[in-house]
Protein: Arsenate reductase ArsC
Amino acid sequence: MPMNKPTLLILCTGNSCRSHLAEGILRAALNDDYIVASAGSKPAGYVHPLAIKVMAEIGLDIANHTSKHLNEFLNQNVETVITVCGNADQACPMFPGQVNRHHWGFDDPAHATGSEEEQLTVFRRVRDEIRRVFEAYAQGRLDEAAVSRSIP
Structure:
């Protein structure tokens, strides 16, 4: 395993919903050999309360997450950038040391309308879609690391 932990940065425009859902899920699915963070190209300045609520439903606490600007990471060695919305994909700069770039777009649950229960239905659907993609990605990373450790 390399001396430095690889940083995986998840980007979205507002850094209030999707990127935090993905950050919480990916951090839980990986081990401590990785640094997982999220940021936005135009951060909203808060984490959406319904995002916090639907993550708590699956046992993940993102209440202490903060909305950050991607510029905070421009001087860091970011190994992998994952965008979860089209606008962030287009606005995404190259980061020092960047090896991988993925774009997996998801609907923005912050645009959900209706009662809180109707909005929660959308948040849960997007959370579950993100969970499927990011848990599969995490398993691939862990498998890859296990294989590289077993090769002399």
